[in-house]
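Q: Could you write out the predicted structure for this multi-component system? I'm mainly interested in how the pieces pack against one another.
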Amino acid sequence: MTVMMLAFAITAAQIMLGTAMACASWRIIRGTRAQDRVLGLDALYLSAMLLLLTYGIQTGRTLYFEAALVIALMGFSSTVALSKFLMRGEVIE
Amino acid sequence: MKRFVPFPLLSLALFVMWVLLTGFSPGHVVLGAAVALLVSRVMLLLKPEPATIRFCPAMLKLSWLVLVDIIRSNIAVARIILFRPKNRRSDFIYLPVQLTSPYALAVLGIIITATPGTLWVQHDPQSKVILIHVLDLVDQDAWITLIQNRYEKLLMEIFE
Amino acid sequence: MMQAPDLPLWAAIIVGFLVLFGSALTLLGTIGLVRLKTFYDRVHAPTLGSTLGTGAILLASMICFSVLQSRPIIHEVLIAVFLTITTPVTLILLARAALYRDRTEGRGNVPADSMEKKQHRD
């Protein structure tokens, strides 16, 4: 009974996070300007990281935690590199 | 002490991170301690400005205030996104600050940006002015006094 | 895939609530990303997910694994610390890049360049 209830809650949360990823992707595709797309990418990385964490809770494996940490790292560095590119036109000066 | 552990806080943080990531076992505690002591020496090459951090009750008070403000402004921003009030005005404001320590300014930047609804954009060290973007700007002076009284005083206590 | 760990009732209720709350906030943040009109408004929206949303899900994960393995598991704190430090950095950099682009192209009503010029002089 409790397992069923928790499974339902986690699945609902995963659907919401998936929708969040879709919204972020919509902003990446739609854009209007480059900074909007970068912002969308940042939000996409964040929701993907949270989705991985919910998979970790669902399966009870700590493997997903490491994947989430790596995604958080990559999201940070890619957003910083892209913003730097928008500001200067090059990443490494 | 200072010669062997030039950055005690950084070493401690590295050690805690190592132990948390690898799980608690004696071998990894030793290895983590070695990594923390050796890697933190890399920072010597950068010669960072020495930080004066005072561990005082102001720290706890600041953390509590920030937590409360994050929850409160989360609710406020969620309401704006859901109901889209018609007369909402978002704008940039200039905020004069007295803080000069780069570490205090960094913490202020993290606090302002981490609370949804306000975003630190730019800082000018000469005129000591911060440019902030506010999502729901009602009263500009109220914002300025709020940030000055709520965070700046406590940050002054901790860092200067 | 309906599957969940076998937790006691109290833990299941807390974990379920926190996971739902966190993901709802994150979804709301990205909805704001779609609905708000200007870039400077939109920058505020994902902060919902990166503060309370992430906090709630990380707390749920911590409680879940601590109960499952019956010892405190707190390595999720690392993600929280990491995000607290990095999210402001990315958002500030992005906002500055946007401001710089808007200023050079003379678009929108962004504050004038007074700060930058002063910095370049010295």
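A: Regarding packing and overall arrangement: Chain A has one domain: 11-88.
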